[in-house]
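User: For a reading group we're discussing how well predicted structures match intuition. Take YhgE/Pip domain-containing protein. Before you show the prediction, I'll give you the sequence so everyone sees exactly what went in.
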Amino acid sequence: MRSLLHDRSRTRIALSLVGLLLVPLAVAGVLSWSLGQPDERLAGVKAAIVNNDEPVEVQGQLTPLGRQLSAKLVGDEIDGNYDWEYATPETASQGLEDGSYAAVVTIPENFSAAATSFSGDPAQAQQATIDVATGERSKPADEAVSREVTSTATALLGNDLTTTYLDNLYVGFNTLGDQLGQASDGATSLADGARELADGTGRLADGADELAGGSRTLADGLGQLDEGASQLTQGAGGLSDGLTQLQQQTAQLPDQAGQLADVSTQESEGVQQLNSELQIMSQELAEMSRECPPGTLPMCNKIAVQAAKSQALSEGAGQVQQASDGISTGLDALAGRTAESGGGLPALTSGIDQLADGADQLDSGASQLSDGLSQTTGGADELADGADQLAGGVRELAGGADQLGNGSGELSNGLNRAVEELPRYGEQERDTLSQAVADPINTDSEGRGFGFGSAGPPLYAALALWIGALATFLVLRAMPERTLESTRSTPRLVLRQFGLPTAVAVAQGVVVSAVLGVSQNLPIGQWFGVAGLSVVTAVAFTAVNQALAAFGGAGRFVSMLVALMAVATGFITAVPPLLGQLTSVLPIGPALNGFGAVLADTAPAGGGITALLAWLVGGLVVTCLVVERARTVNATQLSSPRAFGGATT
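Assistant: Thanks. Here is the predicted 3D structure of YhgE/Pip domain-containing protein, as structure tokens, for the group to look at:
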């Protein structure tokens, strides 16, 4: 019978020890399993999208950003995403109430208008907003997860918008560079043209000076010509008057020449008769001289002399007749009676008449010429003055053109420097820069989802070991039996009583480290570090919980509060300062820091290990004090059989 009871006792103890190992295994395993990577299970959680957005036109292109955001939410760009469904406001609200939807994202009507407002009036630019709602049946973390998913989608959409905007901006830089280059070329051409204009206006000024000089010379020459024209007018007037008088004086010459011709003809005829008579007389005297009788020689000589004289007179009369004929012929010609005369005096008087008329016209033309030359002389003077002013203005223009050329050259140089300093981007560079500037900071979240990241496993491990230590002293005794009967010292009694819990603690530490190694895929070297820290932590927690269990129910309540504080401060940093400070000085504080360090593959701080060892020693000391107090009895307690481990009947 005693053997059977002994076997049952051993079986019960073995099961109890196995149960003590399962407690931290269950805590660490369940927490790691449920909270480790919840994003992998989000695909089984339904959420709704209510798209009330009205698309807008941007530069003539329809832009439905609400639809694009919905596509981002539904698409596969987000790692770990809800099972999104399109819903109406009514069905979405009903789904939140009955728990069908974990979250509802509502896109307002002005979403596209607000998101693209930066492309219009800067004063009217605004941010686009969306509404993320969770129902009363949603879990506490659902709202944070929903906002994270939605923020990721909006960030992706915003990145696309910003990338497009920046790409256009970089294209604008290239276009601006091209336009500045064209402007620089234009400024260079302008500078060259201005310099050529300055040179041309300089030559024009010289020409204007020459024009002024020539105009003055022309004015002087026109003045002299005016004086000559005045003299010509006077001479033409005198000529006209003289010709008029000559016309009057020669008007009767043709008639008088005709009368003279008639008289000359008559005279010629008389001389001809005289000549004939003289020839006859000369012949007769010659014959008389030859026939003169002798003795009349003196008379004959005289007759011969007279005959010779008569012959001479006859010859002279012949010559006079010829002269008279010539005069008569000339007077006939002068009177215009012969064809060879060309009109004679009548033609002369007619020519004098025409000449008088021409002289009158010459007088009138000379007067007009004189007046015109006077006016032209004044115009030439004005032309000279204007040419001087033109030369001055052209010189000023040349100076301005030179300044324009210099300024244009400086402008061209400045534009060239601007073109050189202005960046130019190729298509690949634009894509790279647009992506980098649109999302300049990228969080390295590889291997992490919507769980608690690297902060979760340290909390799970510390909490599992603390609850395991608490459970240990729900099964095992914290105080040694027969403390009054034992002759051993109190420390020896406490250490002997601490032996089995220590073995359980070591086993619990190994189990928890195994869970961490599997859940976190730890390499073997890092796992040994985690296992060592787990064992030290488990032993320290066991010593502290033994001391608390020695105080009975009050101590176990304090142990439960420590676990509660670990949960309250382990999931978020933003806790009340007092609560955070208390947790940091409790045994679980250095354990959390140590696990965080070794799981990050860094050595834990020496102060943390020292603190755990201090809590280990402190727990044993407190247990010793409690045991020592229990071994001290008064006279009343000595009379009781229980004081020595006896039983009452």
